[in-house]
User: What shape does this take?
Amino acid sequence: MSGYILEMNGISKEFTGVKALADVNFKVERGEIHCLIGENGAGKSTLMKVLSGVYPHGTYKGDIVFEGAVQSFSKISDSVKAGIAIIYQELALFPDLTVYENIFAGNEVQRRGIVDWNRTIAEAKRMLGKVKLDVNPDTLIKDLGVGKQQLVEIAKALSKNVKLLILDEPTAALNENDSENLLQLLRELKRQGITCIMISHKLKEVISIADKATVMRDGRTICTLDASKGEISESVIIKNMVGREIDDIYPKRPDKKFGDNILEVIHWSAYDSELGRHVARDVNLHVRKGEIVGIAGLMGSGRTELAQSIFGNPKGYRLEGELWVDGSPAAFKHTSDAIKAGIAYVTEDRKGDGLFLIQDIKSNVTAANLSGISSRGIINDNEEVKIANQYKDSLYVKAPSVEQIVGKLSGGNQQKVSLGKWLFVGPKLLILDEPTRGIDVGAKFEIYTIMNKLISEGMSIIMISSELGEVLGMSDRIYVMAEGRIKGELPTSEATQEKIMQFATQ
Amino acid sequence: MNLYKEAKSLVKVNIREYGMYIALFVIMLVFTILTDGLFMSSRNISNLLDQTGYIAVLAVGMTLVIVIRHIDLSVGFAAGFMGAIAAILMSQAGVPVYLTVPIILVLGIVVGMFNGVLVASVGIPSFVASLAGMLIFRGALLRVTEKSGTIIVEEESFNALGNGFIPSLAEVGGLHVLSLILGVVVIFLYVLSEFSARRNKLKYNFEVVSKSIFALKVVFVSLIIAYITYIIAGYNGFSWTVIIMLGVTAIYHFLSTKTVLGRHIYAVGSNPEAAHLSGINVKKITYIVFGSMGLLSALSGILYTARLNSATTTAGTLFELDAIAAAYVGGVSAAGGVGKVTGSIIGAIVMTSLSSGMNLLGVGISYQYMIRGGVLAAAVIFDVMTRKKKG
Assistant: This one.
């Protein structure tokens, strides 16, 4: 029972012009817990998608050897049949179905198309026992917490006789207690002979659980570290992850001059009547002219909700408190009012609510400021092309023309188009929500450079980010949020990752 | 050789757009051959276009409704009901035509806006809201025609909207002169707009197609307009229905492609959340699109009532589905954000051409439905396939 259960040899994968994976070699031994580490956009998820057949055989170069045989998965169900299961960050459960229905969704216990519910429930109970989850199988998924939902996902994987379990940042949304339970379960599964690949950003977890750890950077595997040889330590991992000094990642801004407050929020609360709770509570913050203010915090700490409640409140929260823009009180009825007042908001979810994916670059760039290319309601097509080309060039968007459909661009280029849309509005204050999520290191650097340039032109920026390095590297001042409240404010000179995390987990 | 290459690549890139026109051409050609030229006779084409009118205006409005990811099933009986109200106003209340038409059109807008409020503000799915509207209008139509049955309209000028032709001024060699003049004016305006668009592009230093392709295109389109004008001038000339249909198409084409409002409509259709975050008032756009649908339903009702010279108890039956089919045949996407007004007009003409051609050939009504259904399915399959290929 030893040797390699999985060998991925010379895997290369390209997306329209962007190399996502370049000659990746990745080997996993039977029965180990192998962590896969790297920055966002390093290629971890792409590699796992190649493995699981999301990208079918033939769309990538290289070989996958699983259980001693070369595999050519053409769809996800092929890899499932071979015994590979992936659990993604966004759980793929049906919230309105019961636990047992979810565990066997797509894999029903049946005889000639008729489901045997009694056996389904009995089997589900057995699987729940395996993952040590003590809930009634009749419970609806939406009534469970995220931690327990994760366990249901694992139970689902186990029900398919999984040999290799892949977890994509399983603890990202979990609290400490749930995280520890999950890690404990993984150790237990390892004893039962299940091999596990875990993608994680949390180095402490990696150090505590990994038998081996492979570091990826810029679409390549950099090294594989072995715990039994004592190679896995925070400093070694970080050095390999980053591959360069912090100074190179975050471009310097030489002359910092701050003016008056461009935005001030006083005792600001936002109540979400659908959730029945406050998403932001008694928030006080201000942004000065020429300043980059970072807002750090964990997922679900209310950062996005706070930003949207300021930006014309599209979700219709019940608001309380005062909002001052450029020295005068403001009350926005609609996002268009906020835009008129000089605020722009670049969403964290560019595909979901940021871009018009089926439209071309030029329509996206001008969407928030059509009056800039029209007179008396009639659009000047040529002016539009000209403007779009200007932004395409100044933001380094890599695309053959501004007629390119945005849905076909890479994440980094989409983000730049999204940014271009808001720069064309000519805002005084730019709110960037996770501006570099899911984009590669090169594009990140370009976005940071653009941010600095905008600041030097007199703009102010609020940057919401979950990447502590980015918050520390780019901000002038940092607010830390947790549970909808501002838990702390730090000048960057005094801020450290530890201090921020302390506030964020209060 | 170079010219051929450029033309080929242009066709390749725009195959989706041209597909509709090619399909229409093929259908017309096949029927013309099968009927020994009877299909392309002036009389038949004139009739065919008149028959298309009241569905075509609905298809135009429906295009925008589907683009913003909604549907309106109430338009058929809404048209029938408003046509009946028009008939009652004129023949029973004695309201003159020049007041009746605007009253009905405004009534249409109000009805459409009401649908818009139900959908956008109350949050009822448009399928359900408009299904309710369909039942209500059907009942309302029956109610107002209950006593008298068919309501005859005797206003000549009103009926002319459905069956009348523009005055001829003079006749030369059996051709309708004013129609000829109209055709020449349209060609002139078309050529002028092409030249000015090209000049503008050059002013911006943008790439333009080569001179020979440009000339070829201008001459080709001009010839087609000239040919259609020639055929129509051979039998009474342009009808008022066709003039109205062309006018509505021109206005909506301009609105949807050249204006801020049009952009907002397509933005809402391709991603409502992103539209909202871009400062676009999604509710307002929904009101406007449903309001315009109501306006065009009223217009459709007027055209249909005028065409029959009367309002009947069954007016408007299945209009909504014909309009929806025309829109889909014309390349509108159910996923939202995609679809052209001109495409839907061509779609409507394709559907009527099929009926007209099959009628001339004496094909039974049972086969007609099946063939039209097949064409609808084929059009959507073509649409899906070409979209995939592009991706």
Notes: The mean pLDDT of chain B is 91. Residues 52-164+240-354 of chain B form one domain.
